[in-house]
Amino acid sequence: MDVVHISFGDSAYGSLKNIFQKSNEHQNEQIICINEDFSIGPIYKLESNEEMQKRKQWLKKLLIKTGPASDTDYLDWIETIHKSDSQIASKVPNDSKVILWHGGNTSDEIGLRFVAFLLRNKNIQFEEVDVTEYSRHIEYKVRDLQNKEIPYVIRSLGEMPSERILDALQMKKSVSHTKIEGLINDWEEWSQTKDILRILLAGKVVAVSEDYYDTSILESTSNEYQKPSRVVGEVMGKSDQCIGDMYLAFRVYQLIQQGKLNYQGNLGSLREFEIRLP
């Protein structure tokens, strides 16, 4: 039986690939990377090429706004991920085993539903590795700035130390047909929504307004000018959500336009200006 691992995010994919290449047991197993952040952007009827193109255009606008427009890597990334997403079903052989790697974050939760829907017409034996559940099971700890061990919950495979991956794989469990049907039904509901921002609240994905993070951005901004990347990093560090810097940087621009933040410098690039409270 063919074994296919599906991971969410470049970092997760790199970790799996690196470990599996060194493993005699897993080196011939396929890994598919879905390098999307499903917590942001339109997902309305994303299974259709037309709506996938609209999401691509939305992400392009966001990336060009928040990063150097001359950096073609941004646009190449958008083209690559959407071409890859559209080919998921064709990459997974019928009658194969699919192992879903995921954690307790919004993007992975939506991603699971998207994958289940794309593979709905194939005879697949699904298994899952929940890295968040794994980290709680082993009572995972990290060291703080004072070098003291503190409990830490891993929220995505990309956060997991690579040396833990094979151990986590031993905790994989079967996914019932009923659960897969539930994921498919959930996707069909989400794919009818027009929101662009989603969070994980009490273990459930919910849609929130586009300005959800604005309060945190303003609270992390001082009366003295500072680089927006510092503010964005502080918001990311304090948030209980897995939110990327790209969307937060976009909201910084929106707050400037609304007069809620002052700036000095060149707004053409995030690195070329500073912000402070009015």
From TrEMBL:
Residues 169-273 form the DUF3658 domain. Residues 4-131 form the DUF1835 domain. Signal peptide: none annotated. Transmembrane segments: none annotated. Pfam families: DUF1835, DUF3658. It comes from the Bacteria. This is DUF1835 domain-containing protein.
